[in-house]
Structure formats: structure tokens, C-alpha cells
Amino acid sequence: MSEATSVVTRAAARSAWARRLQGWQGALVPVAAVVVALMIGAVVLVGLGADPVKAYSSMLEGAFGSVSGFTQTLVTATPLLLVGLGVTIAFRGGVINIGGEGQLIVGALAASAAALYLPLPGVLLLLAALIAGVLGGALWGAVPGALKAQLGVNEILSTIMMNQIAIQLANYLLRGPMIDPKEVEAGTRIAQSALLPADSWLVRLVPRTLLHGGSILALVMAVAVFFLLWRTTVGYRIRAVGLNPDAARYAGIPVKRYQMLALILGGAFAGLAGAVEVLGVQHRMLEGLSGGYGFSGIVAALFGKLHPLGLIPASVLFGGLLVGGDKMQRSVQVPDALIVALLGLVVLFVVGSDYIMRKRAAKAQSHE
Amino acid sequence: MNTSARTPLRELKMVDIVKRFPGVLANDGVNFDVRAGEVHALLGENGAGKSTLMRQLYGLYKPDSGQIIIDGQPRVFQSPADAIHAGVGMIHQHFMLVSSLTVAENVALGLASTRGPRLDLDRVAERIRGLAERYGLKVDPSAVVWQLSVGEQQRVEILKALYRGASLLVLDEPTAVLTPQEAQELFVTLRQMADDGHALIFISHKLHEVLALSHRVTVLRDGRLVGTYPTAEMTRADLARLMVGREVLLQYDRPPAQPGETRLQIDGLWAIGDRGVDAVRDFSLTVRAGEVVGLAGVSGNGQRELAEVLTGLRQPSRGKVTLNGRDVTHASPAERIAAGQCAIPEERMRTGVIKDFSVLENAILCDHSHRPFSRNTVLNFGEIAAHTRRLIADYAVKTPTAETPIKNLSGGNIQKLILARELCRKPTVIIAAQPTRGVDIGASEYIHHRLLEQRAAGTATLLISEDLDEIRALSDRIAVIFEGRLMGVVDAATATAESLGLMMAGTRQTE
Ligand SMILES: Nc1ncnc2c1ncn2[C@@H]1O[C@H](COP(=O)(O)OP(=O)(O)OP(=O)(O)O)[C@@H](O)[C@H]1O
Ligand SMILES: [Mg+2]
What we know:
Chain A has about 375 residues and is an all-alpha fold.
């Protein structure tokens, strides 16, 4: 490397560090928001006659305190991270993708179908199933994308509608064409597919746990998305369109096409999350597989400041909350609804604080 | 709350103000004062620290050190609310009105009503009328803001400040967005306000305005105070020298044009404006290689819509546009760029830059997909940084680093970067709309030289400007637009201010 370029890269690295540091300060805000939400939760716990110290320590213990707890946190974090990446790309492109849930379901359906019905040997089957998941999710993102680009249909509405369609589609397929023949034989007719061939399973990383290769895939994807958004012309255009569509159009960037691309990529990642959940954890498609990850992923993305790398700790933290909340409910015997409410509070505070911070920043920077 | 009952401030002093931004000392021990009854002009090059100084006065930034003293009392403003409470008002260059509300509602916004919780809009409207009449601020309180022209919106902002009892008003480049006529009307208003005992701070890059309006003038340079002078003792040349450090004439020796082939041809063009009526009507014009054609006209007569059609942002309803022999009537912006056209947009913050992008990212807005800036879609930051630093150096863009978000640059420096970016692409046709709006005189001169360089290199330039001096200094031919129609095209060498003025007012060219 020549003298001049090394100086440039060093300078770029330095300022990038400065920016990242500012980012970390900003990252304290969602953490503080979680703490405040948990404190309010503590008051409610006391009101219900439960010991909040015990409750929260069991939560922490459950999520991070043991190998089995922590691996479970990571297993939960994996689909959150993948869905969050999709949400991040869409948000950066100025489109709001609420369709993670539907995209995840369709991705999972497509991956299962590929694994069940494609006559491929060994690792090829796994690969085909993953790709099918990506394509299924992408298709589910492409429909709202095309509707927005061609007809100006609001993507918030259309992605929510696509969620409903996906749920009904899964409903039909898992009770009809894709139902496990064994379920039919036994007469139980539980809505799930047959067990997928072992060739299509993602490798288990820690014995006797559910931790699977999908977690590593998700980490790689986070880095890939970072590269896409900040190191390629495609990402540059997506971000330009998201930040200022007028200027982007003026500069010759086809705005609608890139908004559509952002939705398609968003769907692709949610679809991958579905595939990974099927191939890594359940090994079959079943109803309720998504477990709300399609929505939690949105929160994780906001938690991670809509940054692919920020999303990594954010999804682990949020995954921990989900797992730990479960454990806490069992240990202090509070109603199920309280856990849901607590997570709701966390979401409210994180999203609310983010909104306030952004408004503040906009105010401080109102130019001229 | 009756805001006007507060005693008006008599004197405001800013003492030893220091304000630092990452990599920039924006204000370096500045002393500044303004008294009731005077117009105090603030002058300085782009990035000299004028807006920064005023934002501290209005509570938008906190000084790193230094004091603000009102009538002998030191004051600390945590927010604009504190400043407003102390009687300070500020008119920003970008207005902060809610476009779906009426004038009266905008004025009343955020104020406690005079009677109980119910908003008493009739009383607000009544007081607005009183203030409007006193200061010659023609505006209808029941009009909805989005229907108002830029000049009218500015009047609403002034009314809003007055309504809140401002006795000190800061106007940051108020005339940059006004037509010369509107500017004259604004001056009448400001003089009346000063006569009534208001203190006014006026920022402008137009020296003749400063000379015509102000009592005293303070010059800043690189964040430092150069001095404060009684305006009556200063000349244009004095001010230019204090600001820039040398003579600035804004007059150019131009060799006679040697127009070549036709580069841009507009035939019978019609376009519908935002309000659904024809904004451009049967407009035809030809721009040839190696010439500058100026398009003069009072703003709001279809220039903006015409520029939008020429850049591919607006679809024409009829007519034809030919660029280098190719029909581009319905071409996308990308196709026009590929065909060798570049454009300097009128609204730089809306269409010229992406304000959350860095200077570096903005420098490649049109060219990011070309070598050497990217290869197989992967951006090459080494090349991009080197290119950006060349642009920054060539156009003397003041920025701490190439990685600084462009929104942190001063207005004029943003404009310089846009020009640098567009002109370095060796265009064959330039559409330049208000290229020196908000740019200091030194930089204006520089930009003019660059445009004339392009002319010498054989580029065809369409210069759209409200500044008749700029048009006359640069153009070979001058076209005049009125209500979307071409009033005529005259030779710049023989055109008189009177004949242009008549055409701008809607008289067709005779002879
Ligand atoms: N929020 C900010 N963050 C970082 N730097 C800033 C910020 N605001 C202003 N600056 C820097 O401070 C300097 C002074 O800027 P300022 O806007 O006060 O200039 P100005 O005199 O108003 O110029 P212009 O005539 O172009 O409007 C500039 O170098 C600018 O880049
Ligand atoms: Mg300024």
C-alpha cells in the first residue's frame, strides 16, 4: 500500500472510530430504557406479592447463568438477528417493513418444502432449503415492494396484510398438502409437516443443546449486511434513497426500484430466519413456529440502532429477555400476562426513547 | 399571557464568545452588541461563524465560554424558549411553519391563549392584522401556509416573532430567498421596526443591502471578530476588503462568445405546476455550445418548474426537449446525466445533498457507480477520499474533514461542494439554478470564474437567477420569463436594465 493511501485509510479509520464511539454513547439510551422498564416491572411484581429481586435474578440466571440457558438465549437471538437485519435494510432504504412475521413463515414453509421434496444428496439439500427460505421471504417482500413502486400502496399496510396471508397459507398447507402423514395415520392431525431429512439439518454446535450453525450464519450475515450497506454502491443507493429521496432522484438513482429492493432484501432475511428456525431448531415446519420473532426482530433492530453490527448485542440481549422472562415466570409464579406486559414495556421504552432521541437530534441540527 | 407587556430590551451584548465544533473553532472570542432602534449587519465569508453566533443568541447552541448580557444582566439560554422569553426572535433561512395550518394558527402555536384553554383565533387574527398593518407585512391571517409564497412565509415568521413580543430580531440571510422587490418591501418593514425601538440583526452576503439598511456592521472572519464599524463610513470596497482580504469586483473580462452547435433545445414546452395550473407555457429556447444564456425573471414565474422539467424531475405536458441531438423530453435524471448534462439545483438542502451523508459520500452522488469510485459495486474509499480532497482544495470548501456530515458545513460551503461535484464531471450542458445564492462574494466570484471557464471550454450553460447583476455579468444572451412564457431573448451586451425590467413585468419584447 502506498504512503498516501495508508494515510487516508488511517484517517478514515480514526474518524470511523470517533463515530462508533458516539454510537456507543447512543447505545446506552436503549439500555437505560430497558432498566427503567424493568424497574416499573419491579413495582408491579411487588404489587403482586412477588419478590422482584428473586424474579430478576432468576431472569438473569435463566438467560445468561448457565450453558443451557445461554445457548438457549443464542438460539432465540438468531432469528431475531436475521429478521432485524432485514428490518434494518428496509429502514435504511426509507421503507418500513412490518412483514417480518409473514416473510419468516413463508421462508420456513419454502425451506421445509425444499427439504422434504427435493431429491438432493447431503449438504446440497441443506443449501437448497436455505435458498428456498431466502426466496420465499424475498417473494413475500417483493409483493409489497411492487405494490409500492407501481401503485404507491403504503408498505406498512401491505406488509401487515401479507402477514395475514402467510398465516392462512401455513394454516392450509400444514393441515392439507404438507401435513405429516404420520399425524394422519395416528388420527391426531396436529398441524405440522413431516420430520425433515437429517441431511437438511443445520449442524448442532454444543452437544445436548439446541445451539446450531444458523447462529454462525447469522453473524456472518450481519457482517455481510454491514459491508453491503456501507461498502457497496447498492447499499449507498439504498441509504441515499432512505435519507433523501428527492436528492437521490436528482442524482439519477431510480428511487422506487431501490425502495423495492430494500423490501425484497428485508423479506429475504426474514425468510432466512424462518429457514434457519426450521432447519436448526424444529427440524419440521409447524404452526406457531415464528413465535412472534417477526415482530420482536423489529424491536431488536431498533434496539441495535438500525445498525447491522449493533444488532448483534441487541438481539442477544433481547433474546435473553425472552428466555429469562420465561424462567422468571416459572420461578416466581407470576401470571403469564405479566411477562408479556413486561416485554411490552421494554418495547415501549426502547422505541419511545429512540423516537425522543431522534427528535432531539433533529432539533439540534435544524440547519440555518 | 400578554407577551408584549414585557419591557423591551435596550441593549444586548455578547462578550468573548467561544464556540468549538469537532475540528472547527467556529467563534473565537467574539464580542458583539446590538441596541434598540438599530439595524446591525453581520458580515463574513461562508463559514465565518455568523449563524453559529446567532444560534447561541437564540439558545440553539450553548457557548463554550463567554457571556450574553441583556441590559446589564448576564443571561443563560438553555433553549430557544428562554431566548424567546427574553425577547429574542430569530428568522431562520428554512422556515419552521406547519404547512397545513393557517397563518393565525401558526402564530398561536405553542402559546397559551389569552382566555382559558380554548384557542381564541379571532383575537389572534385581530392582533396579527394590527401588527401586519403597522409594519407593512401583507398577509391574510386565515390563509393556509402551504399556499403562501416564500416571501409571504417569511412575513409570517416575522409576525410570529413580533406576536411573541420579540424586541430583538435576528434575520439569518432573509433576502437570499426573496425577489429584489420582496427584499425592498422587507427593508421597509425592518426600518419601521427599528424606528419603533426594535433591535435588529441582519445577515446577508449582498453588500448593497448591508449598506442600504444597516446602522452598524460587524465583520467576522474565520470565527474571529475583524471589527464593528458605522455603516455610513464604509464603502462596498471597504467591506469586501475586510471580509475577504482583497478587492472583489464581480466584473469579468469575457472574450466574445463563439457559439457552436446547439446543445440544448426547448420547443414549445408546457408543464403543470404544483397547484395544478400551467406553470410553463409554450416556452422555447436554444442554448449553444460555448455560450451562457441567462434566464431572468421574478421568482415564481415558472423558472423552478422549467428547471425541474429540464432535469427530469417533472413531466412536461407538451413540447420537446433535445439534449445533444437526442430527444430527452421524458428521459429520467439518470439518462440526462449520462448524456452529459449536469444541474445545480435551486434548493440545495432538498435536492442537492443528502444532509446525513458525509462530505465524501455527497461528493460521489452522481458518480458512485463509475470507476474509479467503485468496481463491481464495491466502493473504493481510497479513490473517493482522494477525489473529495481534490474538490475541497479546488473550491476552498471549509470543512474539518472529508468524513464530516455535510449538514455541519455552513450553507455557502455546501453550495461550493455541489458546484465542485457537478462541474468536475466535464458536462456538455449545465443547468445552473441560483448558483450563488447564499454564497459569499469571494466564493461567488470564484464560481463565476469557473462557469466562464466552462463556457470557454465549449459547455452550453443555462443560468437561471434572480440576481440581475449576476445574469448580466455572465450571460451572452438573456431570456426573460413571465408567467411561464418567454417574453423575449436579448443580446446581453445591448440589454438595458429598463428593457429587462419591462420584460420581467410582462411586456413582450418589441422590435
Ligand atoms: N453543528 C455543527 N457541527 C459541526 N460544525 C459546525 C456546526 N455548525 C457549524 N459548524 C462549522 O462552524 C463553522 C461556522 O459555521 P456557520 O454556519 O456559523 O457559518 P456562517 O458564517 O453562517 O456561513 P454561511 O455564510 O455559509 O452561512 C463552519 O466551519 C461550519 O462547518
Ligand atoms: Mg449561515
